Structures are given as C-alpha cells and as structure tokens.
Amino acid sequence: MLSEVLLVSAPGKVILHGEHAVVHGKVALAVSLNLRTFLRLQPHSNGKVDLSLPNIGIKRAWDVARLQSLDTSFLEQGDVTTPTSEQVEKLKEVAGLPDDCAVTERLAVLAFLYLYLSICRKQRWTKEDLELINKWAFQGERMIHGNPSGVDNAVSTWGGALRYHQGKISSLKRSPALQILLTNTKVPRNTRALVAGVRNRLLKFPEIVAPLLTSIDAISLECERVLGEMGEAPAPEQYLVLEELIDMNQHHLNALGVGHASLDQLCQVTRARGLHSKLTGAGGGGCGITLLKPGLEQPEVEATKQALTSCGFDCLETSIGAPGVSIHSATSLDSRVQQALDGL
Ligand code: PMV
C-alpha cells in the first residue's frame, strides 16, 4: 500500500433526460463527458503521502503510517454501508483538516479517504472493483444530497451513455458522439431542496405532476430510440427530434418548479442562434446543455459561447461518451494535467 504514485481520473457527466423523474422510478439517460477531473496520491521517502485534487484546489499531506493504521479496521467492515459516526470521527482525526476548511473541501477529503481505504490499493480495476467504486461513490452522493437516485455515480464510474431505471443500469449501444455546450450559470442550488420540492409538488398536485413525470419518461425513451437509430444510420432529421425533446423536457422541468431565470436566459440566448438547451441535473441554477448540430460553423459556436459568457456564465464545448473512472500511468498524462497536479 502507498508505495507507488496513484493517478486516477473520472469523467464529468450530464443527464440528457430524466432528472427528477428518475427519483420517482422513471427512466433517465446520462452520459459521460470528455471533461475529466484528476486525483494524484504520491508517497514520499519522508513517510508522508500527498493528495492532490487540482480541479477543486485541494492539496493535503498525511503520514502513511496513520493511514495504514486505519486501513485494517475499514476493510473488516465487509459490504459498503453508510459510514458510522465513529468511522467519520476517525476519518476526521486522520484528515487533520483545519477548522476554517470549506465544507466542500472537508467532504471531498473525507469521501476520498473513505473510498481510498477500501479500493485504491490496486493498479488495475476489475468489473467487481468498479462495482465497488460505484457503491462507494453512491455513499459520497448520499453525503452530498440525501436521497440520490444513483445515476450520477453510475455514469461517472462506467462512462459512455447509460440508461438508468429503478437502480438498473444498461449501456446504450452505438450511441453517437454528440457535441454539446455545457454552461454553468454559476447560480448556486441545493439539490436536496430541489428534489424535496418536486416531491412536495407531486404530493400536492398528483393529478398534474404524475403525468409530467410520465411524459418525461416517454421523452427519455424516445431519446434512447433516436440515439440508437443515429448510431446505426445517422440522418439530419434525428437532430430535429433531439431538439424537440430538449424543448419539451425543459418546459416540463419548469413546470416541476426546478427552473431558474438564469436557465431561461441560457435557453433564450441559444434559441436566438437556432440552438436548443435544457437544464441538466437538479436545476434551480447550476448547469444547462445545448446541443450542437453537425455542420454548425466554428465561428457560430464561438459566438454562442461568447454570448453565454457575456451573461456571466462559464461555457465549455465538449463531446459525450468518455471512458469511466480510470487509473493512469504518470507518463500517459498530458503535460497540462501534470502541471495542474504539480502546480497547486
Ligand atoms: O444536479 P446533479 O448533477 O446532482 O443531479 C441531480 C439529479 C436528480 O435527478 C435531480 C437527483 C438524482 O439523484 O437523480
């Protein structure tokens, strides 16, 4: 344990369709993105080990001996469960985080330690290891938003394009490599509160809200069908269907109460350029996706990104369907990633 450098990356993800509805047993389609976060764990001869999480600006160092003393007790616990308060206390002690440490940093470091002590001792992962990573990542999700569906951790673990339905995951075969804009409105939101808001609306107006969820389910299924068709025999009309599905779902999500003025603005700005957008994930701010049709000229894409940036948003162009969580050798990483890992 901890004798070699460990380099891990995981893809970003978006939900194409089915956010919120998935919490109520409907289908969701989620895809990984070609935008990755990296982690490096590097042992040193002085008995210390450095953790570097450059994407969230975290660097910490621990005594290897202390981590090793924790190791056995965690492995004894068998299957993955929610950590007991005793275990969390132990992790906090070893993590040695300062009192003024931000909550996000605290959670990230504790979740990392929790995961690391069970799974990151190998240089190659089997399917069973990935299943375990997925389960542990689900526990991390629970720490962050209470009662998650499991779709986020699944797509970041397995990569590609996934259909998620009541805990059952299947890969979409032959889905096309769609180009998208991922726009962060930078409006903070609270997933837990948004999920609870939808539940309350469903309880208050079951006759109104249940059909919306059923309709979102049908949108996911239609999108899945079209993506399959595009993988077999791509045709321009299929993009028109995807765009219509995006518009309909965005309206449904607004009706569920998870929209936000910033997301409306995002949709309007892209609509003015003939592009279609919807929120992705919990909504209430956060991120939106915009479908980029093939044949769109790069200057037009750049102008759209510029228009979104002028609204105060961050906008990234990327494609869907990246590999899931992966271990890397130090030599395989591109120099920008190396610099980010070294440069904190
Ligand atoms: O905002 P995110 O990326 O955490 O996604 C939340 C998706 C929901 O469907 C709203 C909740 C869930 O657990 O699936």
From TrEMBL:
Its cofactor is Mg(2+). Pfam families: GHMP_kinases_C. It is found in: Cytoplasm; Peroxisome. It comes from the Eukaryota. Its EC number is 2.7.1.36. Gene3D superfamilies: 3.30.230.10, GHMP kinase, C-terminal domain. Pathway: Isoprenoid biosynthesis; isopentenyl diphosphate biosynthesis via mevalonate pathway; isopentenyl diphosphate from (R)-mevalonate: step 1/3. Keywords: ATP-binding, Cholesterol biosynthesis, Cholesterol metabolism, Cytoplasm, Kinase, Lipid biosynthesis, Lipid metabolism, Magnesium, Metal-binding, Nucleotide-binding, Peroxisome, Steroid biosynthesis, Steroid metabolism, Sterol biosynthesis, Sterol metabolism, Transferase. It catalyses: (R)-mevalonate + ATP = (R)-5-phosphomevalonate + ADP + H(+). One of its GO terms (cellular component) is peroxisome. One of its GO terms (molecular function) is mevalonate kinase activity. SUPFAM superfamilies: GHMP Kinase, C-terminal domain (SSF55060), Ribosomal protein S5 domain 2-like (SSF54211). One of its GO terms (biological process) is isopentenyl diphosphate biosynthetic process, mevalonate pathway. Residues 244-297 form the GHMP kinase C-terminal domain. Belongs to the GHMP kinase family. Mevalonate kinase subfamily. Homodimer. Catalyzes the phosphorylation of mevalonate to mevalonate 5-phosphate, a key step in isoprenoid and cholesterol biosynthesis. This is Mevalonate kinase.
